[in-house]
Amino acid sequence: VISQTIKCRAAVAWEAAKPLTIEDIEVAPPQAHEVRIKILYTGVCHTDYYTLSGKDSEGVFPVIFGHEGGGVVESVGEHVTNVAPGDHVIPLYTAECRECKFCKSGKTNLCGKVRATQGRGLMPDETSRFTCKGQQLFHYMGCSTFSEYTGTYSSFPVPKDLVRPVLNDCIISFSLPVKSPVVADVSVVKINPKAKLDSAALLGCGITTGFGAATRTAKVEEGSTVGRRECGCVGFGLVAIFGMGGVGLSVAQGARLNKASRIIAIDTNPKKEKLSREMGATDFVNPLDHSNTPIQQVLIDMTDGGLDYTFDCTGNVQVMRAALEACHKGWGQSIIIGVAAAGQEISTRPFQLVTGRVWKGSAFGGVKGRTELPGLVEDYMEGKIKIDELITHRFNLDDINLAFDAMHGGDCIRSVISF
Ligand code: NAD
Ligand code: AHE
Ligand code: ZN
């Protein structure tokens, strides 16, 4: 079946720091190894706001934002083998080709296959599938989920040795040898169609990022508060989380699942305490209540010398420093999740690292999307990961700017946009 260009509606960001406008756009048919998805729901992540603000060095305009969505495959291009029309899917901003040196390393979830073009707002063939009023629109993080239909990349070009060119008159087509291995697919994953898609969509970024940072990147260990330091470190389960938005609350969930003994939530917004505790926090600290003492000192005093794991979920480089310095000497790890604006840098005394504290980063929670996301969807369905509780606001596409307003209103964890 040859698919046609689709006309649909999308929220377009024409320039930085201006409200999005709902436009009629055209979405070209999926090319080889591409998938066109009818988006049914999308979350709005702080990172969408960050790039819209103009502070992202990779930001390009005009663009269709959104990278936390769920939908149904509408059509696929040639050589797509992993998904088919009708499949429920989540687009992946962290691809997984299983072929590049990153994927094969066993050391990271980052994938090198499409990252360069994705960062420039283009599909791997250096073009865009979106147009509006005759003008090309850029893709965002390989997902662009603020559109009724979006194109994402599915698989990398078929390796030459797997392809047999066939000449039919003037048409050159390609066929795969019957026993050839399935071609790897990279930026989309099929999930259980029984999963509630409005919630599962949030596994496309924030929830997976926080949960994975605790369970995959840090690998928080089971802790014991009983005689922990005094009798030779019985477990290392002391955790502090800075910034209790959708990401930080999901770190708390992961830390709780891994049986952390104490989970200290830190946020300047006191309204975050209730949900933080419901997601696993045992303590809540508002740095504004300790204006005479640096927050790292407050935490060190609370924990007999510091935390085993800290997480920055704010994107604030001063907070990142505090999170590192709140770690216990000798072994404390601090995980940077927050995204800081272009030009921002982190600093600390090197002595902090010399004396055993470790600074790490985490993208998409260290989760390999194609391999692990279906399992996380099952975890959600079994109640091991809470998502519904984090959806505080719902809007239709027409009102998507209200979701950005809500993000800054102090009561919002995640908005879900319906199409
Ligand atoms: P959010 O805006 O919902 O939450 C941020 C929270 O931090 C808020 O509750 C806010 O009150 C709190 N906060 C702000 N300044 C603070 C301070 N000085 N001390 C303590 N708390 C403070 O954002 P989110 O969607 O949860 O995302 C969090 C961060 O993670 C953002 O920077 C986002 O861009 C980033 N992010 C990174 C990844 C990744 O893969 N690395 C993925 C998703 C989001
Ligand atoms: N373009 C940004 C990149 C910011 C960034 O670190 N992004 C995270 C995902 S945030 C999702 O909400 C990430 O996965 N980074 C790894 C990568 O390859 O982009 C900038 O600041 O330049
Ligand atoms: Zn995000």
From TrEMBL:
<keyword id="KW-0560">Oxidoreductase</keyword>
<keyword id="KW-0520">NAD</keyword>
<protein>
    <submittedName>
        <fullName>Glutathione-dependent formaldehyde dehydrogenase</fullName>
    </submittedName>
</protein>
<dbReference type="InterPro" id="IPR013149">
    <property type="entry name" value="ADH-like_C"/>
</dbReference>
<dbReference type="GO" id="GO:0051903">
    <property type="term" value="F:S-(hydroxymethyl)glutathione dehydrogenase [NAD(P)+] activity"/>
</dbReference>
<keyword id="KW-0479">Metal-binding</keyword>
<dbReference type="GO" id="GO:0005829">
    <property type="term" value="C:cytosol"/>
</dbReference>
<dbReference type="InterPro" id="IPR002328">
    <property type="entry name" value="ADH_Zn_CS"/>
</dbReference>
<feature type="domain" description="Alcohol dehydrogenase-like C-terminal">
    <location>
        <begin position="246"/>
        <end position="376"/>
    </location>
</feature>
<keyword id="KW-0862">Zinc</keyword>
<dbReference type="Pfam" id="PF00107">
    <property type="entry name" value="ADH_zinc_N"/>
</dbReference>
<dbReference type="InterPro" id="IPR036291">
    <property type="entry name" value="NAD(P)-bd_dom_sf"/>
</dbReference>
<dbReference type="GO" id="GO:0046294">
    <property type="term" value="P:formaldehyde catabolic process"/>
</dbReference>
<dbReference type="GO" id="GO:0008270">
    <property type="term" value="F:zinc ion binding"/>
</dbReference>
<dbReference type="GO" id="GO:0004022">
    <property type="term" value="F:alcohol dehydrogenase (NAD+) activity"/>
</dbReference>
<dbReference type="InterPro" id="IPR014183">
    <property type="entry name" value="ADH_3"/>
</dbReference>
<dbReference type="Pfam" id="PF08240">
    <property type="entry name" value="ADH_N"/>
</dbReference>
<dbReference type="InterPro" id="IPR013154">
    <property type="entry name" value="ADH-like_N"/>
</dbReference>
<comment type="similarity">
    <text>Belongs to the zinc-containing alcohol dehydrogenase family. Class-III subfamily.</text>
</comment>
<dbReference type="InterPro" id="IPR011032">
    <property type="entry name" value="GroES-like_sf"/>
</dbReference>
<feature type="domain" description="Alcohol dehydrogenase-like N-terminal">
    <location>
        <begin position="32"/>
        <end position="121"/>
    </location>
</feature>
